[in-house]
Known about the structure:
Elements: E1 2-4, H1 15-26, E2 33-35, H2 36-44, H3 56-65, H4 87-97, H5 109-119
Antiparallel strand pairs: 1-2
Amino acid sequence: MAEKVNPKPNEAPTHDAQLAAENIVAGAEKAPEVDVNADYEASKAFSVSEIDRTGAGTQAAAAATAPQFEVRQPQETTFKAEPTDNPDDYIDMARDVNPASEGVGNVSDDLVKKALEKGKAAQ
């Protein structure tokens, strides 16, 4: 299925293309016929190289991508962090850094009861 070329001299990107389009419009040159389907079928012949048409292409690809160095298998390691100190020492250190926070986290049962009583709605 050949397609007809419709030249437009005003839209030509270069001076040579503009001259060729003007000659085609004037009838001085014959417009080229473009057969997209035939061009596509012809392009398929170029998409595969000669070496790929034989078994040598597969062998060449395997040789080109083969690893050149020995790769060791990874070994799984296990790590367990053992406590090495007394956790109370860290609490003492935190108090040294911020002594005002002492007693902030101490909640007694009486304090909880008072909070619950104050939180009840009036009847």
